[in-house]
Every structure is written in structure tokens, then in C-alpha cells.
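Need the bound structure for zinc ion, inputs here:
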Amino acid sequence: MIRQKRGRPLGMFLAVLFAAVWITGCYGGSGAAGEAAGNVWQYASEAYEAGQSEGYAAASYDAEELPEYDGRPYVELNGNQPMFKEEDLQEYSYEDYAPLDLLGRCQAAAANIGPDLMPQEERESIGQIRPSGWHTVKYDVVDGNYLYNRCHLIGYQLTGENANERNLITGTRYMNTTGMMPFENRTADYIEETGNHVMYRVTPVFDGDNLLADGVVMEAESVEDGGAGLRFCVYVYNVQPGVAIDYRNGDSWLDADTALPEQEARSRAAYIVNINTDKFHYPDCSSVEDIREYNKLYFWGSREELLLQGFSPCGRCRP
Ligand SMILES: [Zn+2]
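Answer from helper R.:
Posting the output first, comments after.
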């Protein structure tokens, strides 16, 4: 579902979006080596830096072309279809984090994730990293108080990349927990349950020279079953209801008005999905109160879409 802006025809919007996204699977001999060795992976960005490849991670979006925040933590892009190339989808694992740009900002992070990439150890401190736009600032209206998290582009639970400056942006608590985490949890669950690979890419979107990202585009497609088990393409907003943000530098201040669109959207959500149980509910179902925030996926699409994605209706509220 792409909301059109300024009356542009949808076809043109898509053309611009596709033109703005480019990736190459040019991996030279190293791809074959990775395949032959099975579990071997390497940073494709080394090839990128050597000028041998544009890198798997390469992807960019024009902030002006993405739908504006309307209160929903995320919106589907491109009909929920990720924009990978055929050659990105491989049955071996690899990962690639694009170098910081000249303003010190993260760019795309991409990985073809199998169980072998997932971490075995507990996460260590990432406090030494200062992503662009970083401020340590607290508000009572924010869950956990800290407005900003050092937010992994590719979640730690997926590739175990921790204090990698190419994988950490300044993200609001709300984007991290309500926006991104349900999609990360779905991806991790799918890989753990099937042992399959998921091609996965997260691209931060900065407007002009802003140091704080407007949001991130998250794409995922399960490889061995051709996307049947998992597929999404969403834009997640870097917002915090109740707090206004200056995206040029990350400055912020309390503003109750910014909480209103989110409350409005939440009240209009068609369904709430429990990512942990894969059951979906009407928003007023009593079971919803027991779902942890990071397992709660707000959904504005149709029942059929949910069934297609493998979710099943709650037995209590019978949506
Ligand atoms: Zn229910």
C-alpha cells in the first residue's frame, strides 16, 4: 500500500522508487567461495570498497518520495514486496554493511541470514558508539525514559553484529520497539523454526543533510520457499509520540500534540497480531492487553492478507 503524494500517478511513484533502489549481486569469485564453503560468509563491503562491487547493501531512497507519517508506526511499501535481485537470494549466508557516508551516517545494511549467522552469546555494551544525531535525553512519556536508542539496523538477534558503527543509528524507543522489533522477531522465529535463509535489508532514510533518519525501510524474503514463509517491505517511522524532534540534528522537546496521530491510528487499526503466537485479534480483544509491546504488530490491512502471511484468528474474539 503506497499512499500517493502530490497527486503523482502510482506508476511514476513506483518507477522513481525502483530507480532510487539499486543493488548488485556482483560478487565475483567470492560468492562461489562462500557457496562452496557452506557456512562461510564475508563482508561484501570489502569488495565494495575495493571498487569491485556496488555491494549487496547498496540501496537508497528519497525521503521526499516516501509516505509521510500519519500515526501508524509503519506503512507497507511497494505492495509489501521487497526489491531484491534474483542473485541476492542465495542458500548460503552473507552480510554486508555499507560504509558511513561523508556526514558519518549509516547507509544500508543487508544480510542473507541463516541459522549460522545468529548469535550464541549475550550482547555486550554498545555505549561507545555515537551514531549521527545522537543525544542522551530522557522523558517521562517515553517507555524506559530514554528517547533515543542505539538502534541496530539488522537486529542483534539476527546477525550478532553488535558494536558495528555501520549497523547502528539513532532511533527512537518507539521505532525500535513498536516499529522494528515485531518484524525482527518474525524473521528470527522463521529462521529458527525452518533453518532456512532470509534475505534481509534495512535502509535508513535521511532527508537532505539531516543527521537523524526519518525512518528505515525494512525488507525480507525467505529464500528456500520463495518468500512463501516470510516476505515484507515496510517503512518504519523514527518518531516518538509525545515528543517533537528536529531531524536536522536530533534536538527534541515535549509536545503532546505529536501523540494524537498515533492514538488516532491505533484506534483505527483493523487487527493486532501477536508475533509470538501468530494469532491475530480485534484491537478490543481482552487478550491484547497481555501481549508484550515488542510482540504486538499493528495491522491496517485485510483479514485475507493476514491469513496469507500465515497468521490465524484468535479463538476468543474470532476476527
Ligand atoms: Zn482475540
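Comments: Residues 281, 285, 287, 314, 316-317 surround zinc ion (CB under 6 Å). Confidence is low (pLDDT under 50) at residues 1-45.
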